[in-house]
Amino acid sequence: RAFVHGENDGFAAFAAANPRVACRSELGRGKHPVVRGVYVWGEPKVYDCKNRTAGDVLGMAEELRDSSGRKMTRFEKPVVSERPSIQGPDRGGGGR
């Protein structure tokens, strides 16, 4: 509620700073507050905001804004290139 009703760093400021994102707030009686992101490419993502501060809710809204909405897929097999690197195989040392 503090995020929605906040004046300087609340919902209205987030909506004004992000004109390419459609933002709206609804009052749902008897329900937990949620942040919902609906994407063109995928299914919606929903974050529960119960017992969260206004800063936490703002972080959730920014995370939804920055993500694409697509599900992350894990590769089952290691990726093998048809053309190996001319610098040699990667040994995974991380140093230079």
Characterise the protein shown here.
The protein has a two-stranded antiparallel ribbon with strand order 1-2. The N and C termini lie far apart (50 Å). 25% of the residues lie in helices and 8% in strands. It is α+β, with helices and mostly antiparallel strands.
List the helices and strands and how they pair.
Elements: H1 2-5, H2 11-17, E1 34-37, E2 45-48, H3 54-66
Antiparallel strand pairs: 1-2
In short:
With 96 residues, the protein is α+β, with helices and mostly antiparallel strands. It has 3 helices and 2 strands.
Keywords:
alpha+beta, 3 helices, single chain, elongated, two-stranded antiparallel sheet, 96 residues
Largest sheet: 2 strands, antiparallel
> What is the number of helices?
3
pLDDT below 50 for ≥5 consecutive residues: which ranges?
none
Element-level helix/strand string: HHEEH
Rg value: 20 Å
* Structural class determined from secondary elements: alpha+beta
Strand residues, percent? 5-15%
Principal-axis shape equals elongated
Mean pLDDT: 79
Q: Give the strand order, joined by hyphens, for the main sheet.
A: 1-2
Q: Tally the beta strands.
A: 2
Q: Termini, distance in Å?
A: 50 Å
The helical percent reads 25-40%
